[in-house]
Amino acid sequence: MAKKREDVRTRIKAKLKAKKAQEEAAARPMTDQDWAATNAARFAEIPKAVKWKAIRAIRKALPDDVRDALVRRIREEGTARWWLRFGGGHFVWGMCARNVIREAGVTDDMFRTGNLDDYYVPIVEAAVGERKASP
Questions:
Q1: Do the Cβ atoms of 52 and 96 come closer than 8 Å?
Q2: How far apart are the first and last CA of the chain?
Q3: CA-wise closest residue to 73 among 93, 43, 50, 99
Q4: Cys-Cys link to 122, which of 43, 90, 110, 111 (CB 3.0-4.6 A)?
Q5: How far apart are CA 128 and CA 79, in angstroms?
Q6: What is the pTM (predicted TM-score) of this model?
Q7: For residues 99 and 81, what is the distance between their CA atoms, to the nearest angstrom?
Q8: How many domains does the chain have?
């Protein structure tokens, strides 16, 4: 009986320790490596047909000078942070990019998180050739 009680205590302690580690990780700011890894993982989980429809929509909508400016910004700042300040950042330029994707028929419910905000950055990177997009 004492052994069983000790096993239960050990499991509870392990669960509490894991939960505390999870909460601490969630509370710290994301590093550039975190952002890059998150964007790569999210891009990989987009269904192929949805991914290509979104990429084509961005490519069609981007004037050459904006595409060139995007490429420069991505190369200067890296994939983790370029979108924070480009063209007004997430709330201005990012909203325009997300609306272009939505107008092409790619809606938020087609993504695992149900939120295109979580996916548009790597889609734009692929559309301008700064992220590999397998056919």
A1: no
A2: 60
A3: 93
A4: 43
A5: 12
A6: 0.77
A7: 21
A8: 1
